[in-house]
What does this fold into?
Amino acid sequence: MQSPHPDVTDFVQPAPPDLRKPESCPALVLNADFRPLSYYPLSLWSWQDTVKAVFLDRVNIVSHYDTVVHSPSTDFVLPSVVSLKTYVKPPRYPAFTRFNVFLRDGFSCQYCGEPQDLTFDHVIPRRAGGRTTWENVVAACSPCNLRKGGRMPKQAKMTPRQKPIQPTVYQLHENGRRFPPNYCHDSWQDYLYWDTELEP
Ligand SMILES: [Zn+2]
It folds into this structure.
């Protein structure tokens, strides 16, 4: 939260819905344009980080829980949705990480479509000069990875379903929306799916 560019690693996991406990009350963090900073993982701050950001005047409170935390001097109603006062320009391209490769590929094997037992496959094998890049690494289940071995796609007759490319952050956000969190507070819904709801 200290960083001007909130990192997804700062985000907490959606909590089980025991809303009497402050620990179960993370706030959905929206950018200044009222879109979530991240869909997957969902941009959530712990109640402590949220309260800090409110007192540092970095966020507007958009919606509340009914949960109140007490300190000796004051009571504080926990925010359920906050928006940043200053717009954070998202980077155009995401980091090349294992998670983001899986997210680009929809958490499914690029050869058979299975979501289980995912690993990474070098489309052009490393020993044939294939590099570890967005354009040459795809999600593959263990059986497909084994079956392909160190062969070229043509030799193995195994071609990725989608041509691996470097995605934009926007594309990853769109993919992330296909994976709604297990738990979603009512007040978050408007900000998570607002543009899909406008479709006929
Ligand atoms: Zn597979």
Observations:
- The longest strand covers residues 59-70.
- The pocket of zinc ion is lined by residues 109, 111-112, 114, 140-141, 143-144 (CB under 6 Å).
- Confidence is low (pLDDT under 50) at residues 1-7.
